[in-house]
Amino acid sequence: MTPQSHPSAVVASAAADDPTVAHRTRTRTVQVLDRAGNPLVGAPVTVEQTGHDLGFGCIGFDEVHRAGRRLAGKPFTGAEEELHERLDALWFDLFDTATLPFYWGTFEPEEGRPRTAALRAAAEHFVSRGARVKGHPLVWHTVAPQWLVPKADDEVLRLLRARVQRDASEFAGLVDTWDAINEVVIMPVFTQDDNAVTRVAKTVGRVGMVRLAFEEARAANPSATLLLNDFDMSADYEHLIEECLAAGIRIDALGLQSHMHKGTWTKEKTLDVLERFGRFGLPLHFTEITLMSGQHMPSHIEDLNDHRVEEWPSTPDGLERQAQDAVDLYTTLVADPRVQVITYWGLSDHGMWLNAPGGLVFSDGTPKPSYDALRGLIRGQWWLAPTTAATDDDGRVTISGMPGRYAVEVGGVRHEVTLDDDGADVVVR
Question: Where does the record place the GH10 domain (predicted)?
Fold first, then answer.
């Protein structure tokens, strides 16, 4: 009797056949052996993806608020807690990278009394469930403490250095990615309020402020990933990057903001931004994405903060447009190998900046079409759901999909496998 043949077994996600992400697809072969070291032929193996290497992020500000209330002995009501749990479940069902608020003025409203406990509790909440955490930002002129203003410049710089050292050090291991400094292009010329950071930036200069932030943060946490982050996508930001690199400042990644309150970027603009900032050879993080599900802000508004309305509702056309915009933007970004992290700036409309309808979820926790559309990409097309295949004649199963973490289950035992640039075979027994 001729033995049954077991041809090569391949388990692949839809991404493996998608030409737009072919450059990201990785392949790894798992060989299953018995206790004696012999290949198990025709053995059923179940493979599923458990995590993306590419960061799909969102802010986690609500969790900080929740932790602060709990620590103050003012827990949410039953209805509030139910809504938070619903939003939390939606967050983890789509995202894997949380940005937490370390704005100095709200983090340390009174000198010497930082709200470390609430931020730590929030960071632990995300890390305990497998998410990565980024702090935003260590240095920024906006939301700076008012208690800094009367101090002399030398003292402001000393306190600024101490703040960066303290927080980068105390949160090491929980928060290992930081926007080291935010919006430096306008920092020395900012006129919207009286703050001490802008004042010292006029003297120290843009490059000097960047050096301060990066050197102090790296000394406090040498393994941290440190970003230069800005909303200014003009040549001014390019020139700043050039000057910083020429000055020998080590920048780990470039942060590119894209709040689209005034109108969605065209694909041509997105590709232009990717090309102009990708030329530096640094990883790109799209750090702050906002897409409208209602009318766009009037085009004559220059500073987005100047547009203040009590109500800014979603519209049927806006909801449809936001979903398509989200798919188009994320597809374009994932197709560029220089993009490492894509962060949306707010899951829900509740508490959204400027009261804008920029969330992927309504205030009551109901997903918008944009949420479902993104989930169809991130946890659908670019994800490997549990799939079972039989090992071939050499006891092998080949996995093909987006880089990340995978679980291989055989004989009731789960093994963790990583798809990355190391294509070496993995042996499990």
Answer: 77-377
Do residues 359 and 291 touch, judged by C-beta distance below 8 A?
A: no
CB 43 within 8 A of CB 82: no
Count of CA atoms in the C-beta half-sphere (13 A) of 52: 25
Identify residue 115 by its one-letter amino acid code: R
Is residue 331 within 8 Å of 381, Cβ to Cβ?
Answer: no
- Name the residue with tokens 């960061």: 55
Task: Give the tens place of pLDDT for each residue, 79-100.
Answer: 999 999 999 999 999 999 999 9
CA distance 102 to 311: 28
Q: Which one of 3.30.499.10, 3.30.450.40, 3.20.20.80, 2.30.40.10 gives the CATH number of domain 55-381?
A: 3.20.20.80
What angle in degrees, to the nearest 10, is found between the helix axes of 235-246 and 206-220? 60
Measure the CA–CA gap between 153 and 158, rounded to whole angstroms.
Answer: 9
Distance CA 56, CA 115 (A): 27
Pair 187, 141: CB distance under 8 Å: yes
CB hemisphere CA count around 343 (13 angstroms): 27
What distance in Å separates the CA atoms of residue 218 and residue 384, rounded to the nearest whole number?
Answer: 36
- Residue 248's CB is within 10 A of a number of other CB atoms, namely 7
Q: What is the pTM of this model?
A: 0.95
